[in-house]
Design goal:
It comes from Deinococcus marmoris. InterPro entries: Aldolase_class_II_sugar_metab, Aldolase_II/adducin_N, Aldolase_II/adducin_N_sf. Its cofactor is Zn(2+). With about 230 residues, the chain is of the alpha+beta class. The protein has one domain: Class II aldolase/adducin N-terminal domain (L-fuculose-1-phosphate Aldolase), CATH 3.40.225. Helices cover about 40% and strands about 15% of the residues. A hairpin with a 4-residue loop joins strand 3 and strand 4. It is globular. It binds zinc ion (ZN). The site of zinc ion has 4 residues, from loops.
Length: about 230
């Protein structure tokens, strides 16, 4: 994919953030890895004002290479993650409300749904508090997610970071983490109202579900069963 196509794709993916209720005003951003750098949303621009051309190219030290606008204030975080995790091709950051409510409690989102076992391979982990602007957030994201099955982390008192092989994969994880954060929140409210416990899933069942989802489920090559 050339830079023009990637700019168009990244712009289209950014429009999915407000469409899925993950962002407010100018908060939230997506980046894509480039050869030796990254492409990211400009800082302080509303989603309605964004264009493919307004996306900013920086190197992996967050220094601008191409673009008239300043890059997102989270660019140092994205750059740090790309430097430390070569398998990552896309990153999403949001303050989506339910996931960020969990982050405000400093608690992981417990794995109580099969969809969580599928997508995250267990609880969505919660990283510690880190100041904004430098590389501390990136360091916390890498510390928790490197080697972890979850493509998503909630950061204490802040919000959500998700990673993927592509920006689309990272966006999917950002949509999914908000969806399960809402459902699990509702489950705990309902359980409290009914005087019952939220049911947990055993580690063995989580492993089985995650393996099935990542190895068998979907339209994978050579594993498709033709419809009769
Ligand atoms: Zn943030």
């Amino acid at each position: 994919m050339n830079h023009t196509e990637l700019r168009a794709e990244l712009h289209a993916l950014h429009l999915e953030l407000p469409r899925n209720g993950l962002v407010t005003w100018t908060s939230g951003n997506i980046s894509a890895r480039l050869d030796g750098g990254l492409l990211i949303k400009p800082s302080g621009v509303t989603f309605a004002e964004l264009t493919p051309e307004s996306m900013v190219v920086t190197d992996l030290n967050a220094q601008v290479i191409e673009g008239d606008l300043s890059p997102s204030s989270d660019t140092a975080t994205h750059a740090y993650v790309y430097r430390q995790m070569p398998e990552v091709g896309g990153i999403v950051h949001t303050h989506s409300p339910y996931a960020t409510a969990w982050a405000a409690t400093g608690q992981e989102i417990p794995c109580v749904l099969t969809a969580m076992a599928d997508e995250f391979g267990g609880p969505v982990p919660c990283g510690g508090f880190a100041p904004i602007g430098g590389e501390e957030i990136g360091a916390e994201v890498v510390r928790v997610l490197k080697g972890h099955r979850s493509p998503a982390i909630i950061l204490q008192s802040h919000g959500v970071f998700t990673i993927g092989k592509t920006p689309l994969a990272a966006l999917k994880a950002a949509v999914m983490v908000e969806d399960v954060a809402r459902t699990v929140f509702l489950a705990y409210q309902l359980a409290a109202a009914r005087g019952v416990e939220v049911q947990t899933i055993s580690p063995a069942d989580i492993d089985r579900l995650h393996h099935r989802y990542t190895h068998v489920y979907g339209q994978q090559q050579h594993q498709e069963t033709p419809c009769p």
